[in-house]
Amino acid sequence: MNRHRSEVSSSTRTLRVIAHLLGYPSEELREHLGELQEALHDENALGKSRLAEIDALIARLSNEPGLSSEAAYVELFDRGRGTSLHLFEHVHGDSRDRGPAMIDLVKTYEAGGLLLDDGELPDYLPVVLQFASTQPNAESRQFLGEIAHIIRLIFSALVRRESSYASLAGALLELAGERAEAVSIPDEQDIDEAWAEPEVFGGCSTEGQASASANSPTQPEGTQPLYFIPKAATSSASSVTKPSSSDTRRTSP
């Protein structure tokens, strides 16, 4: 990112630390966890209990094997929409409104003096926080308040999963002037399950083949193509589930 403003909020370093901690726990990030923790405590923009929770997250990332942290991160943030760090995933899903919303957000960044690097998605929460950190205190707080309802959904999903990453979403709610309280959220479907291949012709057993033959006596010769559709769509003939997508492109810490 290229920053062109010198005005920053009083929670500048805290927002940037949270942005880094929400990123992929690469080896480079893990090497700087001590510095991030020090910056967080030096600014002291969060309450003691919240700082203690984030300290626990940092300690876990510092002590557990890197591959374990990376695998847990992918499992947490890349499977299902509830914990997605792409904010428009929670608002627009895969609708056509997502593209124009991305463009509007980029324009907001540019008006605020922030230019995205190639490959950075504007609705990725760490990018959003980097932008908020460049704004004066009042504007930063207002900006966070405008997305607080989305952050609350992510916070609630992380609390449900008993993830220590919930401490970061909770911290953002506090910085937005909101209470960090979880709300009721619907059960989310795992992405792999949503794209599971449905059984075709009653399965591959001889019973299934016999059943298919009995039900389709005039079935033409030759094979038929298999279509991969969301598993949920097969549970009700009256409902159609739109396939979901998960963009896992991230910014580097």
UniProtKB/TrEMBL annotation:
Name the Gene Ontology biological process terms.
chaperone-mediated protein complex assembly; nitrate assimilation
Record bears the keyword Transferase: no
Superkingdom to which the source organism belongs: Bacteria
Q: InterPro entries this protein is in?
A: DMSO/NO3_reduct_chaperone, NO3_reductase_chaperone_NarJ, TorD-like_sf
The gene behind this protein is narJ
Q: Where is the composition biased (Polar residues)?
A: 206-222
Give the start-end ranges of region Disordered. Answer: 205-253
Keywords of the record: Nitrate assimilation
Q: What is this protein called?
A: Nitrate reductase molybdenum cofactor assembly chaperone NarJ
* Keyword rRNA processing among record annotations: no
Residue ranges, compositional bias (Low complexity): 230-246
Pfam families, per the entry? Nitrate_red_del (PF02613)
- What would be an example GO MF term here? unfolded protein binding
